[in-house]
């Protein structure tokens, strides 16, 4: 979602495709008055990110990555791809205020969401090896925005 790399600033120049793999959920709304609704629900958001052309001397030493714990990794020579998988449960709370309630309506929506981290895994893939580096340690288990 911008410049840099979520795993480590060393990889800012590497090819870094990523995106929402899948998002789904359940939404509920309660009409308080003609103009005001409270909305909430539960959503699952799965994100993935790849960092290509990672030298094995970095990928093989998990402690060299800012976002990874130390660990012993066995790997083959060459370049690899780091793959980060994240899964969050989101619980939003929103207030919707109808500014114009005609055939075409205009509403103002404000609120906050809490995200709970469910999955956090970083793997490395090279020509002859695929293995886990463990979880990224630069994430909180919950976040409210």
Question: How would you describe the overall organization of this protein?
Answer:
The structure is a single chain. By secondary structure, the protein is mainly beta. The chain has a domain at 9-20 and 48-90 and 118-138. Helices cover 3% and strands 58% of the residues. The protein is built from 1 helix and 6 strands. The chain has one helix spanning 56-59; strands spanning 18-31, 36-55, 79-100, 106-125, 130-134, 142-144. Strands 1, 2, 3, 4, 5 and 6 form a 6-stranded antiparallel sheet that branches. Strand 1 and strand 2 (36-55) form a beta hairpin. The longest helix has 4 residues, at 56-59. The relative contact order is 0.23. The model is unreliable at 58-64 and 67-75 (pLDDT under 50).
Task: Work out the helix count.
Answer: 1
Mean pLDDT equals: 79
- Helical fraction equals under 10%
What kind of sheet is the major sheet? 6 strands, antiparallel
* Radius of gyration, whole Å: 20 Å
What is the overall shape?
Answer: elongated
Helix-strand makeup class = mainly beta
Poorly predicted spans: 58-64, 67-75
The helix-strand sequence is: EEHEEEE
Number of β-strand runs = 6
From the N-terminal CA to the C-terminal CA, the straight-line distance is: 17 Å
Question: Which percent range describes the beta-strand content?
Answer: over 45%
